[in-house]
Design brief:
Order of helices and strands: EHHEEHHHEEEEHEHEEEHEHEEHEEEEHH
Strand order of the largest sheet: 2-3-10-11-1-4-9
Shape: globular
Oligomer: single chain
Helix content: 25-40%
Largest sheet: 7 strands, mixed
Number of strands: 18
Radius of gyration: 23 Å
């Protein structure tokens, strides 16, 4: 797979873990892309809720991540590593993604250890010990992999804005950049600027992700021509300053071709803008997916079956369908149709051509309307025994429940422990979950 070029713009409002997540979700174009990671963390904090919202600031349009959790839950360095490894295992992160997580976490630990002049075993992480640190690190790795960018991309970054002034922390009032951020900047020779914001805009997690991810800081060699971008907004209100970072996919050209403006494409005359169409379905969420298909008439069943495993188990596709048909010369054939995030088009095309031997693929961009979805953790009483079960809840535009579906793996765990069949357990768990959600 050929290398892509990514430019991360952090020159105005720095970076944080949630800004990375928001920008990657915007780039992928799938609002619930982070759900597997968030759902896996529910066992460690049942109050965790992650909600992605669209946000604008002037001409900039992107995503903002709202995270609610129990701030009283604090993990030691060892516990933080153990939970991160468990999440990586459950979400089947690749070795490349796991190595990324380890490097980011080590960067944070080493910076905190140097900043406080304490060995790792004696560190009290304060804010960094909360569950959202794991969400930021594992989520970033998961989304980079989902977008097909991990290991196939050259990452560039602008000089990093750090902010100015002081902020109030659990360590007390600290100068910006805070000691842990300063340690990361110095240890990795990261060029930085204060920027216009009179507060902290570069967090320790954001700095550690940049230090791990970026191949080169400063201007790319040649002119960077942006083709697609994801915009992630931070939590703080910086007034007239847009609190956002941009992740841009593009080409590096030796010519002085001017990059396109980041504003959204102007719709053709007579065609309502996407936002206007979405407003007609107020209360529903909307996104875009790519639908890829090809027709094959000379592939055996084992090869066709392996394609399912590759596309679904590696997280490349949302769904894969094979439709039997008759093709040219009245030959039996299959139409292979794949639904995926737009960012995964190139990777899916390469997999289909490699494994099916097809000479080409067809693709279209489809818009979707989706019911609101969330995963909650419910304490279930099954024949006098308590079990923690993840339950997927979908809601209509008016907030009413459409479906309640227990997580299949959790139902199987309860079935093995109790001897009750999955068929019998599913409605019992759904009824108990409905009583909790309403």
């Amino acid at each position: 797979m050929s290398k892509s070029n990514i430019l991360i713009d952090v020159a105005t409002a720095g970076a944080s873990g949630d800004m990375f997540l928001s920008a990657l979700i915007d780039l992928i174009g799938e609002e619930d892309a982070l759900t597997p990671i968030a759902a896996s963390l529910l066992i460690y904090d049942p109050t965790l809720r992650v909600r992605i919202q669209s946000k604008t600031h002037g001409s900039h349009v992107g995503k903002h991540l709202e995270v609610t959790l129990d701030r009283g839950i604090r993990l030691s360095p060892n516990s933080l590593r153990e939970v991160l490894n468990a999440i990586a295992e459950e979400c089947e992160l690749s070795k490349l993604a796991r190595d990324f997580c380890d490097k980011v976490l080590n960067e944070l630990f080493q910076a905190e250890s140097r900043a406080h002049n304490q060995p790792l075993k004696d560190l009290h992480l304060h804010e960094l010990g909360s569950v959202d640190t794991i969400l930021d690190i594992a989520g970033t790795a998961y989304l980079l992999e989902k977008a097909g960018l991990l290991g196939t991309t050259k990452f560039f970054s602008t000089d990093v804005a750090v902010g100015t002034g002081t902020i109030q922390t659990e360590h007390g009032k600290l100068e910006v950049p805070v000691p842990a951020v300063a340690e990361i900047l110095v240890a990795n020779d990261i060029p930085y600027v204060n920027g216009p914001a009179n507060t902290e805009v570069l967090t320790p997690t954001g700095a550690a992700i940049l230090a791990t991810l970026i191949d080169k800081f400063g201007e790319p060699p040649g002119e960077f021509v942006a083709m697609r971008q994801g915009v992630g907004f931070g939590t703080r209100d910086l007034g007239d300053i847009p609190n956002m970072m941009r992740i841009m996919i593009g080409d590096i050209s030796s010519t002085m071709k001017k990059p396109p403006k980041p504003a959204k494409e102007t719709p053709k005359k007579g065609t309502p803008a996407k936002q206007e169409r979405v407003e007609m379905f107020d209360g529903w969420s909307s996104d875009e997916v790519v639908v890829v298909e090809t027709t094959v008439d000379d592939v055996d069943g084992e090869t066709m079956g392996s394609l399912f495993d590759i596309l679904l188990s590696e997280g490349l596709a949302y769904d894969v369908v094979m439709i039997p048909a008759f093709g040219k010369k009245n030959r039996p054939c299959f139409i292979v149709k794949v639904i995926a995030a737009k960012a995964g088009l190139k990777g899916i095309a390469e997999v289909m051509m490699k494994h099916l031997g097809t000479l080409g693929i067809r693709y279209t961009i489809w818009e979707r309307l989706k019911a609101s979805r969330e995963t909650i953790l419910c304490k279930m009483n099954i024949d006098g025994r308590e079990f923690m079960v993840r339950v997927k809840v979908s809601r209509a535009a008016d907030g009413s429940i459409i479906t309640i579906k227990p997580e299949a793996d959790d139902v199987l765990t309860v079935s093995k422990a109790t001897g009750i069949s999955v068929r019998e357990l599913k409605p019992r768990i759904a009824m108990q979950a409905q009583a909790v959600t309403e």
